[in-house]
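Extended Data, record valine--tRNA ligase
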Amino acid sequence: MLKRYSSHCWHSQEKAAIHGKALECSGVYDPEVDSIPPDAKLALGFFHWSAHHKQTKHETSSYCIAVHILVKAKLIKDARALLEAILTRAATESSSVFSVVETLVSSYEVTESTHFVFDLLVQTCAKLRLIDGVMGVVHYLDERGFKLGVISYNTLIHVVEKSGQPGLVWLVYEHMVENRTYPNEVTVRIMVNALCKEGKLQKFVDIVDRMHGKRCSPWVIVNTYLIFGMVEEGRIEDGLVLLKRVLQKNMIPDTVAYSLVVYARVKLGDVESARKVFDGMLKRGFNANCFLYTLFIGVYCEEGKIEEANVLMLEMENGGLKAYDETFNHLIVGCSKVGRVEESLKFCEKMIDVGLVPSCLAFNELVEGLCENGDVKLADEMLTLLLDKEFVPDETTYCHLISGYGKKGSFEGVMKLYHEMEYKSLSGSYLILHSLIISLCHCGRLEEADRYLRVMKDRSLSPSGSVYKTLIASYFEKGDKTRADQLYSELIGQGLDLSFQRLIKIYSEKEYNPLSPVSLVFTFLRPGFCQSGKLEEAHQYLRIIEPLVSKQWFVTMESLAEKALKAVENGELNIMPERFEKIYNHWLSNIKDWGISRQLWWGHRLPVWYIVGKDCEEDYIVARSTEEALDKARQKYGKNVEIYQDPDIVDTLFSSALWPFSTLGWPDVSTEDFKRFYPTTMLETGYAPTILHSPLSCPVVGV
C-alpha cells in the first residue's frame, strides 16, 4: 500500500481531480486502495511503480495520459521517453503507430494538455525512423486543429531526407508551407541538401538564375523548385495556389513568380493565355528573361512553327539575352523534324561556337535528317567534332550513321562505325544489330549480314520482320532462292508478318522454284486474291493458328472412381457383356483428373463465380446457385461485393451424365418424376464410347 501524500503539493484540487480521474480511467490504480500522486513527477513514479511492483502492463491509453500530464508539467524528457516506449511497442507488435496517435488525440481534452504534445509525437516518430505513413499522421492532426511547429517539420524533413526518399521530403515541405508554418534557415539548409542528394541543385540554380536574371538566395531556389516540381507533376492548380501564398510572404521574387505562372499555362496547353501573362509582365516593367523566351521557342518548335521560333530567337539576341543549351536544342530538333536540316545544322554549329554541346536527342534528330538527305559523311564529321568536346553519343546516333552509310553502299563506313561501337561496348544491342544487318544487305555483303543474324540469335535477340524482308529480297536479287526460302520459313515459324506488297515485289518477273515454300504460298494465292488486289484477304491464309494455353477446371476423380469400382465389385452395377468389366476396371483404376472446361456458348454452366475486381485465379466461389454464391461472397468480401459466373460450360460427357436427373426437375428432388424415375436402372451405350462414357458417367450420377 502506498502512503498518502500531503495535499499541499497539488496546485489545486481541480487539477488533482483531473489527474486522478485520468489515471483511474487508464486503469493504473484503484482509488479505494491507492492514493493520488501529488504532482507530475510523482505521477510518473507511480506509473513506473505500478508496472514494476504490481506487474501492470500499461495499455496505450495509460501511456498517452501520462505523456499529456508530463508535457503539461514541462517534463519533456520524461514524456519523450514514454512516447518512445509506446511507439516502439506499437511498431513491433500487431497494433499500429496510428493507434497511438488516435489515443493521444482522444485523451487530449481529458488531461487539459497542450498542443506541444503532438509536436513531441512527430519529433519522436522521426527520431525512431517511423516515417511510413507519417504524412497520414500529419494530415490527421491538421484535420483536428493541431498545427505543428517549424522545429517538428524540420526534424521530420531531416529524417526523411536522410532515409533517401526525396519525393516525401518535398511533400512534407509542401504541407508545411500550405499550413502557414513558414520555413527558417534550418529548413532551407535541409532542403538544399535534398536537392544536392538528388543531383538537381546546379541545374535548378541555373533555371532560377535565368528566370530572375541574377543569382538568387537558397530560400528562393528551394521555394521555386517546390512550385516548379508541382507543375512538372501535373498538379498545376495546386501549384498556382501555393505560389500565391509564397508570393504574399515574399518568399519568391515577382519575376520568378511571373515565369512560373507562364510555365504553368504552357504546361496546361494554353499558349495564348501564357503569352498574355508574358505580355502583361512586360507592360508592368518587368524584363523578359531567357527562360521564358526558351519556353516559347520550345512550344513553337514542337508545333512546327519555325518562323515564329526564329523571330523569338532574334528578339532574344537583340535584347542582350544569351541563349543556352536548351534554346539551341529546341531549334535543332524543330528544324530537323520539319525537314529544314540546313537550318538545324547552322544552329548546331552556332551552339558549338559559343562553347555549348547539343543534347544527344537533338543531335540524333540532326543526324537522322542529314542521313536521309544523303549527307552521312557530314553527319559523321559533326560527330567527330563533338567527340572532342566530350559529347557522348548513344546507340541511336550510331544506328542513324550506319543506316546512312548502308544506303550509300559504303561497307567500309558501316564497319568502321560498328568497330568504333565495339570499342565503346555499344555493339551488342538489338537496335545496332538490326541496323547493321540491313545496311550490310544494302552493301551487298550477304555473308556478313547472315553472320550477324546468327550473332543476333545467339544473343537471344529475335530478328524483326524488316530484317527478314531485307535478307529475303537481297538473296533473291542475288539468285540464291534456296536461302531466301529458308529465311522465309524462319520468318513464318516465328509468327512474323511479311506484307503481300513486299512479297509481290520480290517475286514479280523473277524465276523461282514452284515447289519452294514461298513459291507455293504465292502461287496458291496469286490467281485469286492477289491478282484481284484483295491483299488483306489473302494475308489471312499466311497466319499461323496456334493453340492458346489457358487454365481449365478439373474434377478430382480418385474418390469418385473408387465408388464406381466398388459398385461393380459388390454387384450393385452389372456390365453386359461381362468382358467389358475388365476395360471398366482398368480405366477407373488408372483414371486421371477430368478436364471439364469447354469454351462454348451452350451447355451446363460451371458452378463457379468470380469477384469483380479480384484475381480470378485466387478469388473464386463454388456454389449451387447465384444466390448461394452471393451470400458466400458477402460473408468474405462485404455486402457491396459484385460477382459474375464463369462463362465456361462442362464438357459433353459430363453434361450427358447430368441428363438422367437434370431432365426430372433437378435440383428440386421433391418432384414426382424425380422420385419415380431416379435413380435409373439401365444405361445403354454404343460400342465406341463404352470405354470412356460409361465409367465417367457412373461416378457423376452417383452409382
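Summary. The radius of gyration is 40 Å.
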